[in-house]
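Box 4.2: Ligand-aware structure prediction
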Amino acid sequence: MFDKYSKWIETHRERLINISDKIWGYAEIGLEEEKSSALLISELEQEGFIVEKGVAAMPTAFYASYGEGKPVIAILGEYDALPGLSQDSTPDRKPLEEGAPGHGCGHNLLGVGALGGVFAVKQAIDDNEVSGTIRYYGCPAEESFNAKGYMVNAGLFEDVDISLTWHPGFLNMLNVMSALSVNSVIFKFHGKTAHAAGDPQNGRSALDAVELMNIGANYMREHMISEARIHYVITNGGKAPNIVPDEAEVWYFVRAPKRHQVENLYERLKKIAQGAALMTETELEIDFLSGTFNTEYNKVVQDVVNKKLNEIGAPKFNAADKKFAKELLKNVPSDTIEGYLNLVPPDLMDLAKAVLSQPLNKIIIPPLGEGKTLPGSTDVADVSWVTPLAEFLIACEVMGSPGHSWQNVATSGMSIGHKGMLTAAKILTLSALEFMKNPKLVDKAWKQFKKDRKESQYRSPFPEGLQPPFHRLKN
Ligand SMILES: [Zn+2]
Ligand SMILES: [Zn+2]
């Protein structure tokens, strides 16, 4: 029924690819996405969208609406890059600028796929085929600081009926796996400096506190659920061995499948930090950077999206794409694939093996990993707790390509990524139109949502009054 709107994406492919390539080239990291967000905003304004800029105290966060009244359908966009991954769109390692950021998670595609989606829905509103509001959420800093959590906190999703999103991957499927809830926190210790050899008795080492805290945390590992993950890096360990460090800090991630499990582990970790401060006569300061929930998808929205996914089908890669993929595959380790095979039920094993042995995924596969949790975290989770939401994956990468890699930067800037992005835009369009045409489906999704939230509800993972962590940015 809405074929002409998926065709709209095809007719406007050059324009969308051009925007995506520009954002790929800007490659700006979280909360610094000035050019990327400005480009998206100007494109949205050209199409007549009303844009609210600098929302939730973040200059690069925005949302853009078109149409009026209910339902309000949100499509989520991201556009932040990752540090150090600069790479040309070539199958061999070739940084465009040594050490500079790159789109290793394909968020240039994610953001512009979503843009194509809202533009095509706008056409349907203009044609009076559907009524309601289509909204693009410009969500910065997915990789680092749970910007979506701040946007949820600011009440920006309060009138949203349905949320849709996607992510570039190496498979084409509905995403059914949850993601880990996380707290990202810096523990900073303040001690007293002294000449390390001359008057060590006058020093109180902040680095000692960091080390003792890490030892405590490593002992705690023995007594936590096996699905939990704790990792840290020392972000300041002092200046020189002959100066007792009066300042030191360590950055922790605490992750677990459920929010309450993270909170429990985090409380225990805080006690360990306090203990380390007590042992070393230093002062502890906690800098809470961000936290997210685990993802909870809505079955009703998932069903609609899965139908559209199968209707549109996989991206159509050509011989040149395949050639590029084969070259790039020489640089891809094989163990990601093995991890996926663990998720495959026995009746799908033959199909899975056939798909995973190809350089590119050319069919839509049944969702893998139902009931399981992805060993990573995303701030899409927080939106999934306040609106009915579904997410799908489209092949924009070569088979088994590791996440956050230069290999993904390469495909995000050439025709493999472009084709995936346009496919995603069509699926987002058709899914949004389905909900706009059929308000009963929206009611059904909300009934399911209320049922799912009966036992546990969303509470912001941030301490009261927390501001986005601009103080942690390097520039
Ligand atoms: Zn990522
Ligand atoms: Zn990502």
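In the box above, the bound molecule is zinc ion. The chain has a mean pLDDT of 96.
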